[in-house]
Write a structure and sequence with these properties.
This protein is of the alpha/beta class. The chain is built from 23 helices and 31 strands. The model is unreliable at 758-771 (pLDDT under 50). Bound molecules: zinc ion (2 copies).
């Protein structure tokens, strides 16, 4: 008999790993112990060699569904005597080194229990088990044990404690365990902050009655508060829009189950699977043409796709099931600010929007919105917002091994930072627009929290080159104050490095063409870049081509007002400016005419602004009421209208410049001839896809990688796939193509430039990453 020490790293806490190990040991009649540490799971067993080997193999190859093993090792240690196999208290002697478990949606077993009259958790709103429940959002420190979560103050009843200790129970060592006897206290408040009830059954009944009367409710979820109201009630949705100061931005819908979804929504196979996955994201889906159930015109004006989600907590399931109709479900915030997650703030602020507020005593440490994704018609997945259920883990880590601690601060408008600590990679959830004070707070809270969890302090700070981004300025100041190295990375190079890293192409020897199309980023020539073609070779990016420049008018204002993009494009086409005159008042027109004449105007090559300009020229959207509105409307109108027989608009490519002038002139001519708007919009995207294909042929490059917010466009993505069938095309995988990938891209760019180091070969994971 020999004692063996097994060490397992990765995503192994909060996924039922210790109970699983315990069960295998009991089945094999092996004595020993298992415990959590800051660096993973540690196991000691005393057994004959062949048995110890079998045990080790079983653990690695049959690990629980939510676990990810990144490294594992076994070594012989001096003999220890064990009388049984048990779970020992956690030790936190080692430095933190593990993957953080994301929040996991309510599992099917728990769902059944909630609706089982004979189960003691019948209609219990906080039902969870080893396989499901909040994790990242309630974790205060490591390792993952009840006392380190925001459930530390709640004592399990005798019944729950019995489950907790029972090795064959699905709640054996479940840290979020609770039941009606030892419930998480729940409260219903009115808009005055007066407590109406503290009983979960009564709360759900009162809530249901209010929703049926057309009231709006704020309900605490996993990463923050949600606003709920009847999705079939036009008046209620209008009230919600008024109170939220949100005139047109689409709302997501919450359905009880897939059967209910399918009455209103046409689901593809991919969408059906994604909706039911443990991430439980919002999935953009196509609403059936003949549905007359939901108030589509109010929910998503001018669009035919709506975000759909299923309940990811027992509380949301119970509310939705009782209401028995689709509910509008949107982040509980005041226009533009991040989601509210603190109970006192919810009572104070959400009473302006909601008629009643439902809270409970399990605090949220880390605020998160719902993750959002969509599938193209060809089945390509595009992540639009990476948050609850996906953040903050990234596996496998495609960056080089290093002992450094690095903080990459990301971009401004769609912020998310990336923290690299001695081989551990964390990419934060979406943290909003950093020009707002509230988003800056959310960012700081999340960043301090993750740095504390890992007990790390950045030795280098990576920022976007932009001279005016708040996020870059704060990075500069911090580096200066603490006398640490500051590294500036150009925005589109970070995009390109991110998509290369996601596809393990950082050290690719053959040239790769990066097509980086987005709204704006500060360029190396001090102009505003945004449709860039880079060629990567020998760890170096060369700007191979870009869209011809046009004037960048008034920075931020141009991003919000497509009519300014249109005017800017027309300044280069003599005699055409009158086409947009109708979108301006006399005073405005005079002002912009003066502005255009100024000699030292900033220039832009932004594809986002180019498409905005087209949307305004076609009369689709002249001023955005929410970020990206013109782009979404243009895509929506074009999506079913691509006609391969209609030819393309010309975009000649010479000396690295794509000349868009003939493109716009031909388009305007067709518009003038009263060609169908949708057909023109379809032709716009087909022409762009063909122009990319032409450039790749001209440059003779076979590997092409795509990044930037423009590639959130499902239609353009499919057209690119269609036009370049013979090439190798690479897209983002776990991250969004929008600026949420910039933090990670800054790290990737840094590692690309850094000389190769000794890179120890790890025993890699035995399972595919499934988030
Ligand atoms: Zn469960
Ligand atoms: Zn209990």
């Amino acid at each position: 008999m020999q004692t063996h020490h097994i060490h397992i790293k990765g995503l192994v806490q909060g996924v039922g790993f210790r109970p699983f190990v315990c069960r295998i040991a009991k089945q094999m009649g092996i004595n020993g112990m298992v415990c959590n540490g800051n660096d993973g799971v540690h196991i000691e067993i005393t057994a004959v060699d062949y048995l110890a080997n079998d045990f080790y193999k079983s653990i690695i190859s049959h690990s629980p569904g939510n676990a990810i093993i990144t490294e594992h090792s076994s070594k012989k240690i001096s003999h220890k005597e064990f009388n049984s196999f048990s779970i020992h208290p956690s030790n936190n002697r080692a430095l933190p080194d593990l993957l953080i478990t994301p929040d996991i949606a309510l599992c099917d077993d728990c769902k059944k229990e909630v609706f089982d009259k004979n189960n003691r958790r019948f209609r219990y709103p906080f039902t969870t088990c080893l396989k499901c429940g909040p994790r990242y959002s309630i974790m205060k420190s490591l390792p993952y044990d009840r006392e380190n979560t925001t459930m530390h103050h709640l004592k399990m009843c005798a019944h729950c404690h019995e489950e907790y200790l029972d090795i064959y129970n699905q709640r054996h060592f479940s840290q979020t365990n609770s039941c009606p006897e030892c419930t998480i206290p729940m409260h219903l408040y009115d808009t005055e902050g007066k407590l109406k009830s503290g009983d979960s059954d009564i709360i759900i009944q009162l809530l249901d009655a209010a929703l049926k009367e057309g009231k709006i409710a704020a309900v605490k979820g996993i990463g923050g508060y949600l606003l709920l109201c009847d999705a079939t009630n036009t008046k209620t949705i209008e009230t919600l829009r008024q109170r939220k100061h949100r005139p047109a931005k689409p709302f997501a819908l919450l359905y009880t189950d897939i059967d209910m979804v399918q009455k209103d929504v046409k689901l593809s196979g991919d969408e059906l699977i994604a909706l039911q996955e443990k991430v439980s994201p919002i999935v953009l889906c196509r609403i059936k043409d003949n549905q007359n159930n939901i108030a589509l015109g109010e929910i998503a004006p001018g669009l035919n796709r709506v975000g759909i989600m299923l309940p990811y907590t027992a509380l949301l399931l119970l509310i939705s099931e009782k209401f028995n109709k689709p509910l509008v479900a949107t982040s509980g915030n005041i226009s533009g600010s991040p989601v509210i997650y603190n109970d006192n703030e919810a009572i104070e602020w959400l009473s302006e929007v909601a008629d009643l507020i439902v809270t409970f005593d399990r605090d949220i440490v880390t605020p998160q919105d719902d993750s959002v994704l969509q599938y193209t018609d060809k089945g390509k997945k595009i992540i639009l917002r990476r948050s609850r259920g996906l953040a903050p883990g990234y596996f496998p880590n495609p960056l080089k091994e290093s002992d450094e601690c690095l903080l990459a601060m990301g971009s401004e408008l769609k912020s998310a930072f990336a923290l690299y600590n001695k081989g551990n990679l964390l990419i934060s959830q979406y943290l909003g627009d950093q020009s707002s004070l509230e988003s800056q707070k959310s960012y700081a809270v999340t960043r301090n929290h993750l740095q504390q969890l890992f007990n790390c302090f950045p030795e280098k700070i990576l920022i976007d080159k932009h001279p005016e981004y708040y996020i870059s300025q704060s990075g500069r100041e911090e580096a200066y104050k603490n006398n640490i190295e500051l590294i500036e990375v150009q925005h589109h190079k970070a995009h390109f490095a991110a998509v290369l890293a996601e596809n393990e192409l950082l050290s690719e020897k053959k040239p790769v063409l990066g097509v980086i199309w987005d709204g704006s980023g500060y360029g190396d020539d001090k102009q505003i870049w945004g449709s860039e073609f880079f060629i990567s070779r020998d760890n170096h990016f060369k700007r191979g081509a870009h869209l011809d420049y046009f004037p960048q008018m008034l920075g931020d204002k141009m991003n919000k007002e497509p009519r300014l993009s249109a005017l800017s494009l027309l300044t280069k086409l003599p005699g055409k400016q009158h086409l947009v005159r109708k979108y301006f008042s006399e005073k405005e027109w005079d002002y912009y005419q003066q502005l255009i004449k100024q000699p030292a105007m900033l220039l832009t090559s932004s594809m986002g602004r180019f498409l905005d300009g087209i949307a305004a020229l076609l009369g689709i959207c002249s001023v955005n009421t929410f970020e990206g509105e013109a782009a979404m409307r243009l895509e929506a109108i074009a999506r079913d209208s691509v006609d391969m027989q209609k030819g393309v608009y010309s975009m000649p490519f010479e000396n690295g410049i794509l000349n868009w002038q003939p493109f716009i002139l031909e388009m305007l001519e067709e518009y003038d001839r009263k060609e169908n708007k949708a057909t023109i919009a379809g032709k716009v995207f087909l022409s762009l896809a063909k122009s990319i294909a032409a450039i790749t042929d001209e440059l003779n490059i076979d590997k092409i990688a795509f990044s930037g917010g423009v590639f959130q466009n499902a239609l353009l993505t499919d057209l690119v796939l269609e036009e370049m069938k013979t090439k190798q095309l690479f897209f983002h995988r776990q991250l969004s193509p929008n600026d949420e990938c910039i933090g990670f891209g800054q790290l990737a760019y840094y590692f690309m430039q850094k000389p190769a180091q000794h890179n120890p070969v790890k025993q890699m994971a035995v399972k595919e990453f499934s988030y």
